[in-house]
Specification:
single chain; 126 residues
């Protein structure tokens, strides 16, 4: 059974940085795509970034490109989201998700992912 556990959320001021972690367990993740989504109150879940577990190819939403970095540590079965230059509009619950065999054109859609973590709150406010 796949389990994803996010950590690292919190309250930070605009311009500061935060790193989220997603600890994955339950299977080997080669061939999987790992992704981060976020959801602000009253808004739909929004794709943020994704990484191919095998090969490490990364994808980013335009709104975070140049500020956020997604990475994975295969030895620890953990995916990270380094968030720099945070803005108030980055506020939301951040979710980790995974699925096997996600094609590139489907990387951005929540419906492509079968397993989800419980989420971690990120609040950017002065």
């Amino acid at each position: 059974q796949v389990q994803l556990v996010e950590s690292g959320g919190g309250l930070v001021q605009p311009g500061y940085s935060l790193t989220l972690a997603c600890a994955a367990s339950g299977r080997t993740f080669s061939g999987h795509t790992m992704a981060w989504f976020r959801q602000a109150p009253g808004s739909e879940r929004e794709w943020v970034a994704a990484i191919r577990w095998s090969g490490g190819t990364t994808y980013y939403a335009d709104s975070v490109k140049g500020r956020f970095t997604i990475s994975r540590d295969s030895a620890k079965n953990t995916v990270y989201l380094q968030m720099n230059s945070l803005k108030p509009e980055d506020t939301g619950v951040y979710y980790c998700a995974t699925a096997y065999g996600v094609i590139t054109s489907s990387t951005y859609y929540a419906r492509s992912y079968h397993y989800w973590g419980q989420g971690t709150q990120v609040t950017v406010s002065s």
